[in-house]
Amino acid sequence: MTITTRRSKAAAGALAAIAATSLLVACSAEQSPAATTTTTPAGPPTGKVTLVTHDSFELTDEQKADLKGLGLDVEVTQLGDGGTLVNQLILTKDAPLGDVAYGIDNIFGARALDAGVFAEHASPALPDAAKALRLDGSDALTPVDQGDVCLNVDDRWFEAHPDVPVPATLDDLADPALKDLVVLTNPATSTPGLAFLAATVGAYGEDGYLDYWKSLKDNGVKISDSWSDAYYVEFSGGGEDGPRPVVLSYGSSPAYTLDGDESTTSSLPATCFRQVEYAGVIAGSDNPAAAGALVDYMLSADFQAALPDTVYMYPVDPAVALPDAFEKFGPLAEKTITVDPATLATNRDAWIESWTDTMLG
């Protein structure tokens, strides 16, 4: 399976607006009657920047070269999954671990905003089409990528078992015909598992989601601790000939299960929960100007075009071309199940505790 990332060789243009703004501020200071000293016009922000992120992300060699060309010396620190990342940022708020954080998603983002982890940064590089993805309209977190957490099915398994109906909706998972054929992930230990838990709350409400989970338990659902265990061990289409043809994964996953010109798996768009990942300048950064420049670089055409290969996510810039496999086999769902981020932040722990009592107790 090969997917070619389309990256232009042009330097990222996002810093141009920063440089122009700095120049205007400097010139204004020179011309103001109140100015007592002469200010030298500033160039683009430069210097050392520590990027704090989750374990699923690393800068590519080409990105590192791009950033060095922009005068940014970026050091990457990985802190676990998205939930661990936010927890560490909050715990170390008074002694920041870095200058920029990337990988905070809409499940945990409201908590980070409430804790005051991030400084305001209205990126001039944010496309108009992506502004609706901001959390509560805040400029403290800049949307960088997006994707869908969805159920996936093994098409070949169902072709070989025509007596078993292919599920299409959440309700279908409770069909006795799918007994012992579904694997999901624990929301207490898995980010996609938490996204799917939120989707069930969004679909059935706080009064009904546990009844839905009870119906899945009665139908023999398997709960794995991690996405990798669910997908690669339990899922029949994940490469290890697992016993279950329905798995919780991502809308983009079928773009990576190619056999020639076709995919062997499909996602179910009616089951999708939209995940958005953000970057932000950490409050108390030692180099906030350069930190803001790094956030802006993440919105450049080069960085956005690499997202399908680096984090298996979609760019927030709709003008950036996707790999052919993404376009054909893994498009974003036209409509997703939603939960208000503030409601999610307030109730997440209680939902997980109730789920654990219901499913594992």
Automatic annotation (TrEMBL):
GO CC term, one of those recorded: outer membrane-bounded periplasmic space
Coiled-coil residue spans: none
Signal peptide coordinates: 1-34
GO molecular function, one term: thiamine binding
PANTHER family on file: ABC TRANSPORTER SUBSTRATE-BINDING PROTEIN, THIAMINE-BINDING PERIPLASMIC PROTEIN-RELATED
NCBIfam families from the UniProt entry: sfuA
Protein name, entry field: Thiamine ABC transporter substrate-binding protein
Organism: Sanguibacter hominis ATCC BAA-789
Lineage: Bacteria, Bacillati, Actinomycetota, Actinomycetes, Micrococcales
